[in-house]
Amino acid sequence: MVNFYKPTKLKEVLDILSKEVVTPYAGGTDLMIDPDENASYLFINKVQEMKNIVEDKEYIRIGAACTYTDIIENKLIPEVLKEAVSQIAAPAIRNLGTVGGNICNGSPKADSALIFFAADSKLRIVSSRGEKVIPIIDFYLGRKKLALEKDELLVEILMNKNGLNNYYYKKVGARKALAISRVSFVGIINTAGDKIIDCRTAFGAVSDVIIRREKIDAIFIGKTFEEAKALKDKYLAAYEQEIIPIRGRVSAEYRKTVCMNLLRDFLESNGI
Amino acid sequence: MIKFNLNGKEVISSSKENERLLDVLRNEFSITGVKCGCKEGECGACSVILDGRLVNSCMVALGNIEESTIVTIEGYRETKRFDVLDKAYASVSAVQCGFCIPGMILASECILDKNPNPTEDEIREGISGNLCRCTGYNAIVKAISIAAKEGQGLW
Questions:
Q1: Which end of chain B is more exposed for a tag (fewer CB within 10 A), N or C?
Q2: Edge-to-edge, what's the strand order for the sheet holding B9-13?
């Protein structure tokens, strides 16, 4: 039996999720490409509690049902996320597609998820049983495999407010608009005095899950730029080992080469 | 039953909630200015304005538009803004086969509604989801900039 639900309150959404087998439908731009006739949709685009963008002391809290356009037009959103989101698809898709959908579709090509990885964002996942806040890296278990129970819903993304200004972002696609990333990369570096206090990188569209390796990035932390330069080969060699691309529309060799070129360019543009 | 406003009129659809808005408009309401090009959100031929924003109607399930407002080319052609765009497109021969044009006109409206004096880059960005296989886009871009000049005060 196919049913459709159009709740307007989060509590109703969670109640339905706990009792019925449904597919949450926010923007629909992934679901409608290959619609499942037998799916019962839980329409959540009119749930106001999932459409807010607010800030607290630590985080910018982004409702999972915010569209890409909502992100681009909001003053609280860091520039790095705006830049990535404004390169997704085209205006008519950005007016529908949501960040929650981008994350929950489970693809390593999700351009907004890449930024959330590099920003060490957290996800607030709620069910009628309670709620949990987990780092986005723990949400992805494999290709299309998420740490999300049937009755749970991603309600909010918690993005760190600070330390995202000095970023490097590149999306490599076949064309400027309506392009699915062939490789995407983001790097963020922060310094205090002459020391690197923060280095965060993430690679999208390469492997089953977005690649984020804190241990490798830690090679540079606490180092001066001179010391970082001396450690550069070690750093690049470590990523050379970790980046194991899958073959898709483009070859694995191409993906690997582009990843390493972007990583080098990111370092060089920061004087490393 | 889904109730929404279609081109200024309150309507109730008896189609299933998982049907594409594109199919509902064409089959149930005989709104054939909404064209089907790809059903993948890539071509923009099925563009409509949903609550003031351009969307691909092939990417919208009917259940998602309860109480919303939809404008298609059939409704938009009754406006003064349409007259300005119509003349501007004609003046530079920006229409060839015409299949993309309903969507292209609605994309033009959304560009000018947001920004009455767009730069060429902003125009190109605004129509980046609307494919045209005839014109090569230059005439369309020119038409939109002419409409911006001619339609001062309308947007």
A1: N
A2: B9-13, B2-6, B69-71, B47-50, B53-56
- Residue B51 has a pLDDT of 98
Residues B139 and B89 both lie in one domain: yes
Sheet holding A167-172, edge to edge: A167-172, A183-192, A195-204
How close B120 comes to chain A (CA, Å)? 16
Mean pLDDT of chain B: 97
Residues B49 and B84 grouped into a single domain: no
Structure-token pair, residue B54: 């351009």
Searching chain B, which residue's CA lies closest to the CA of residue A2? B18
Domains recognised in chain A with CATH numbers: 48-160 (3.30.465.10), 167-269 (3.30.390.50)
Q: Collapse the DSSP code of A197 into the 3-class scheme (helix H, G, I; strand E, B; otherwise coil) and give the result.
A: strand
Domain of B117: which CATH number? 1.10.150.120
Question: Measured between beta carbons, which residues in chain B are less than 8 angstroms from residue A45?
Answer: 64
The string of pLDDT tens digits covering residues B95-118 is 999 999 999 999 999 999 999 999
What pLDDT shows up at residue A1? 81
Query: How many Cα atoms sit within 13 Å of A50 on the Cβ side?
Result: 31
Q: What is the pLDDT of residue B107?
A: 98
The answer to which of A82-91, A244-253, B40-49 has the lowest mean pLDDT is: A244-253
Apex A225 CA angle, A224 and A231, nearest 5: 90
Query: Which residues in chain B have Cβ-Cβ distances shorter than 8 Å to A92?
Result: 41, 44, 47, 54-56, 59, 107, 129-130
pTM for the whole structure:
0.96
Average of per-residue pLDDT values in chain A? 96
Tell me, yes or no, whether B98 and B62 share the same domain.
no
- Per the structure, the count of domains in chain B is 2
With beta carbons under 8 A apart, name residues in chain B contacting A69.
53
Same domain for B83 and B36: no
**Confidence grade of residue A249 (pLDDT, cut at 50, 70, 90):** confident
Residues on chain B bordering chain A, Cβ-to-Cβ distance under 8 angstroms? 16-18, 20, 39-42, 44, 47, 50, 53-56, 58-61, 63-64, 66, 107, 110, 125-126, 128-130
